[in-house]
Specification:
With 198 residues, the protein is an all-alpha fold. It is built from nine helices and no strands.
């Protein structure tokens, strides 16, 4: 067994373990940290498949931005864990069926004659998979890419419009009043008598 296979099996086992811990651990902060670990393990597997750009994007975008946002939201909100765990048992049969179907599909693909993995092409040392990914993305899948961009733009506009609506009984910041404040209005000096120690 070569060194690459050892690394592959090691990080694949780590990926499966951390992904299972994401859905079984009780603390949401620990679940988010296990998700970060699974992203790192998946990035290593992608590096072994010579998909360096996707591995770096996975680490930068998901670990560096999305998971930090998840951790921020989870730690700022007061989440009732017991209420979230109440419906876990009711969805357990469906989860087991889906997990068995996915495991069956993976076993069917891996235990075949190997034709699914024989379409790999070797390239020269100056081959750039980033350039090839960009070429395929902006030529063969241009319409799909543009549709995804429009959907994301609509989602961004919807999120901004939902946060900017004026609800009654809420306080809002008025920038013009903050800018118009004079120097004497910012600080008010109050004279107080000194307290004596008893």
């Amino acid at each position: 067994m070569g060194f690459e296979k050892i690394i592959f099996y090691l990080f694949s086992a780590l990926l499966i373990m951390s992904a299972s811990m994401v859905i079984t651990v009780r603390n949401p902060v620990k679940a988010a940290l296990f998700l970060v670990l699974s992203f790192f393990a998946c990035a290593v597997v992608w590096l072994l498949m010579e998909a360096e750009f996707l591995a770096i994007v996975l680490v930068l975008v998901y670990v560096g931005a999305v998971m930090v946002l998840f951790l921020f939201v989870v730690m700022m909100l007061d989440i009732n864990i017991e209420r979230l765990r109440a419906g876990f048992i009711s969805y357990l049969p469906v989860g087991i069926v889906v997990a068995l179907m996915m495991a069956g599909m993976l076993i069917w693909i891996v235990s075949g004659d190997g034709s699914a993995f024989n379409n790999s092409v070797t390239h020269n040392a100056d081959y750039s998979n980033t350039r090839e990914l960009g070429r395929v993305l902006y030529t063969d899948f241009l319409y799909s890419f543009e549709i995804a961009a429009v959907i994301l733009l609509v989602a961004i506009i919807a999120a901004i419009s939902l946060t900017l609506r004026r609800r009654p009984n809420t306080k809002h910041q008025k920038i013009e009043n903050q800018i118009a404040v004079k120097r004497n209005e910012r600080v008010r000096m109050v004279k107080m008598k000194a307290e004596e120690k008893k």
